[in-house]
Amino acid sequence: MSITFTSSLLKPSGITASPSGLKRPGFGTLYGFDVPKDTGTASFANRYAIQFDGVDDNISCSIPTSLMASDFTTSIWVRFSANDTADGSIWANNYGATGKVGWRLYFDSTDAAGNGNLSVWASNGSGAYDNPISNVQVGLGVDTWSNLAWGRNSGTHFLYVNGSQVTISQGHQGFNSSSSSYSDSSPDLRIFEPTIGNGPSAGYCDEAAIWNVALSGSDISAIRDTSGANPIPTDLSSIGNSGNGPIVWWRMSDNNNGSGTTVSNAQNIGTNDATLNNSPTLHDLSTAPDTIYIA
User: Fold this and answer.
1) 290 CB burial (10 A radius; 0-12, 13-18, 19+)
2) How many helices and strands in the chain, by DSSP H and E?
3) Number of domains comprising the chain
4) Assigned domain for 14 exists
5) Does some domain include residue 179?
6) Can you give the residue range of the structural domain that contains 216?
7) pLDDT tens digit string along 93-119?
8) I need a labelling partner for 264 at 20 to 30 A (CA). Which of 206, 218, 281, 282 fits?
9) Alpha-carbon torsion 96, 78, 133, 226, what sign?
10) What is the pLDDT, as a whole number, of residue 245?
């Protein structure tokens, strides 16, 4: 038995007859089926972090001038070794600058086991200082990666350490920073800036990001993947902000092929990059490998 193909059908190569019961194929549109799009994007990996020498290394970051005007969330991974002197700013923006409202997230270690105090300070540009988060005692461990998430929701500050919200209290209040806008026409965001604090800090950082919203507790938990033996960073691109992720996200050279002095904003390549100053070390997490290494 032979098959006759209409002009609207292409005759399959090599087919000359139809088995019993074969029916003519139909063409149309299927509704209710979602076919994944092949974007060509590689799976999430984490190979690099930045190591600071505790002398003059730092990272300067460009951010949108409107960022952190009201609600916001910041997230950064840090690691300190037993011989690292931690008594300074983890990151800060315009802190202590004349005529500008600034902030700093500060850590000072109290022993060689990685215990110490986390605090947040704000400055109003006229010599007054506010301490909305005063000396939260934390244990960050030795050579252990920790995620720190600090933010503000409708005037109330919050702090999470490794996915868990910690109890905070107000310290010195030279002015009320609960509603202060941290946005500025000339922001000066620095990571591990050695001149902010009582002394420079040596250590490591990775996966720094800022959202223009206050993340929920579940969103902050999603920053860390805890399914394995050690918590590791996750892809932040769609966490929070109605699925749009952070405004800036510096992956510490993971999207720069581990080269150069520029750290791209992974959330929007080509805008709001960061710069490595005074040659901090590019730390290859695959060597050892490190606990937050993701192949």
Assistant:
1) buried
2) 1, 18
3) 1
4) no
5) yes
6) 48-284
7) 999 999 999 999 999 988 888 899 999
8) 218
9) positive
10) 98
Domain of residue 218, CATH code: 2.60.120.200
Residue with token string 């749009």: 244
Give the tokens for residue 134: 């005063």
DSSP one-letter code for 185: S
CA 247 – CA 65 distance, rounded (Å)? 12
Burial 273-286 (b: 16+ CB within 10 A, else e): bbebbeebebbebe
DSSP letter for 239, please: S
pLDDT value for 81: 86
Torsion angle, alpha carbons of 191, 194, 200, 205, to 10: 20
Range with the poorest average pLDDT among 171-180, 195-204, 265-274: 195-204
Phi, psi of 220 (to 5 degrees): -65, -35
Read off the pLDDT of residues 133-152 as tens digits, 9 standing for 90 and up: 999 999 999 999 999 999 99
* Residue-level length of the chain: 295
In a domain, 251, yes or no: yes
> Is residue 43 one of the residues assigned to a domain?
no
For all residues of the chain together, what is the average pLDDT? 87
